[in-house]
Amino acid sequence: MPVAATGDYDDANIFARILRGEIPCKRVYEDEFALAFEDINPQAPVHVLVIPKAAYRSWADFSGRASDAEIAGFVRAVGAVARQLGLEAPGYRLLANAGEDAHQEVPHLHVHLFGGRPLGPMLAR
Ligand code: 5GP
User: Fold this and answer.
1) What are residue 38's phi and psi, to 5 degrees?
2) Is 25's C-beta closer than 6 angstroms to any atom of ligand 1?
C-alpha cells in the first residue's frame, strides 16, 4: 500500500527496523550517513536501496530538515554506491518515490539504484 507524503515519521517502518538491526539486509555500503542494501524484490540485475541513517520520510522532508552535513553525506553515499558497483561506465538509474501518487511503500526516504542491463526509457511511451 502506498503511504502519504506527509505526517509524522513512523519508527516501526521496515527500513527503520533494518537500521536498528532488527531485520537483516544484504548490505552493500555503509558510512556515517547512509546505508545501502539490496532490494528484496529486485526489478533489475542491480537493484539497491540507499537510505539516510536518520529518520526522514521523503526527499522533501530530508531536504527541509536535514543538516548540510547529512545532505552532503547522503548524496555522496549514493554516488559512492554507484562507483563501488562499477556502474559509472555502463550507467544506472536513480529513483525516489514520495507519497501516494508515486506509490511510495516504505515511509523512510530511499533512493533506488538500478543497473546491470539497458534500462530503457524511464516511463512507458
Ligand atoms: P517504494 O515503493 O517505497 O519506493 O519501494 C520500497 C522498496 O522496498 C520496494 O522495492 C521493496 O521491494 C523494498 N522492500 C520492502 N520491504 C523490504 C525489506 O524488508 N527488505 C528489503 N531489502 N527491501 C524491501
Assistant:
1) -70, 140
2) yes
